[in-house]
């Protein structure tokens, strides 16, 4: 399957079905763990001592994106599972909180989905861009709202404002911010160009199977 088509299909499925990433992991871990790097495997399994050994020896890049898991980095796994010590360790060895998955999810999106308030606080303390939208425009706060994580929503409402204030102050002082995923810029443009054509093909297929339908005046909101 063409890489772009696969990315778009994955994005559409994610947005339409709202599949929990932890649920997805539990279903597929046995068949795909072997495709992950040793570092990804160790983080996903919560093996702190093994992760530390791997990082100390420089065996794996802490920012490596696993294409078989929608471009997740080890930090995405740690955030989704609420592993605070793992997050601190990864950050110590250079993990970047700004890196995103194939649909634009930051570690903060995963933490918000799973309700890991302590992770969100840690990312905020690192001045991570916890207000960053994904490909569909959903911020971590919006994800927290979708999954009913009220404590996370309350925190993010205030944290977003502080994040924006910090960004403005940094720009005024000319201070650098590590908020941009360079790879994501190109992939996002690729998705934007491919998604309309894919939607048209899907609509044609649906019309053939269901017959003519009355156009809707509303657009479904999905992730």
Topology:
Layout: H1 3-17, H2 21-32, H3 38-45, H4 48-57, H5 74-80, H6 84-92, H7 107-114, H8 117-125, H9 140-146, H10 150-173, H11 182-210
Helix pairs in contact: 1-11, 3-4, 3-5, 4-6, 5-6, 5-7, 7-8, 7-9, 8-10, 9-10
ANK repeats: 70-102, 103-135
Keywords: ANK repeat, Repeat
InterPro entries: Ank_Repeat/CDKN_Inhibitor, Ankyrin_rpt, Ankyrin_rpt-contain_sf
- Helix run count: 11
Distance between the termini: 23 Å
Please report which band the strand proportion falls in: under 5%, 5-15%, 15-25%, 25-35%, 35-45% or over 45%: under 5%
Q: Rg, please?
A: 19 Å
Identify the overall geometry.
globular
Number of domains: 1
Structural class by helix and strand composition: mainly alpha
Corresponding CATH architecture: Alpha Horseshoe
How would you state the average pLDDT, rounded?
A: 80
What does the largest sheet look like? none
Compact description:
This protein is mainly α and 223 residues long.
Question: Mind explaining what this structure looks like?
Answer:
The model is unreliable at 2-35 and 205-223 (pLDDT under 50). Helix content is 62%, strand content 0%. It is globular and about 40 Å long. It has a single domain, classed as Alpha Horseshoe (Serine Threonine Protein Phosphatase 5, Tetratricopeptide repeat), CATH 1.25.40. By secondary structure, the chain is mainly α. The protein contains eleven helices and no strands. Helix 4 (48-57) runs parallel beside helix 6, helix 5 (74-80) runs parallel beside helix 7 and helix 7 (107-114) runs parallel beside helix 9. The longest helix has 29 residues, at 182-210. It has helices spanning 3-17, 21-32, 38-45, 48-57, 74-80, 84-92, 107-114, 117-125, 140-146, 150-173, 182-210.
């Amino acid at each position: 399957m063409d890489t772009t088509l696969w990315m778009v299909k994955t994005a559409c499925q994610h947005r339409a079905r709202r599949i929990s990433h932890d649920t997805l992991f539990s279903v597929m871990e046995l068949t795909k763990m072997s495709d992950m790097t040793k570092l990804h495997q160790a983080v996903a399994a919560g093996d702190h001592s093994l992760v530390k050994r791997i990082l100390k020896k420089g065996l794996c890049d802490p920012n490596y994106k696993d294409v078989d898991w929608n471009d997740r980095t080890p930090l995405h796994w740690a955030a989704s599972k609420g592993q605070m010590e793992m997050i601190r360790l990864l950050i110590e060895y250079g993990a970047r909180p700004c890196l995103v998955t194939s649909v634009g999810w930051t570690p903060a999106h995963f933490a918000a989905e799973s309700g890991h308030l302590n992770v969100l606080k840690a990312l905020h303390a690192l001045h991570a861009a916890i207000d960053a939208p994904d490909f569909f425009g959903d911020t971590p706060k919006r994800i927290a709202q979708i999954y009913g994580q009220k404590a996370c929503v309350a925190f993010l409402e205030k944290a977003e404002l502080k994040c924006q204030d910090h960004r403005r102050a940094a720009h005024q002082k000319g201070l650098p911010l590590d908020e941009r995923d360079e790879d994501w810029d190109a992939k996002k443009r690729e998705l934007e160009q491919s998604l309309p054509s894919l939607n048209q093909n899907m609509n044609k297929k649906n019309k053939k199977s269901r017959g003519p339908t009355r156009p809707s005046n509303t657009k479904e909101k999905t992730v």
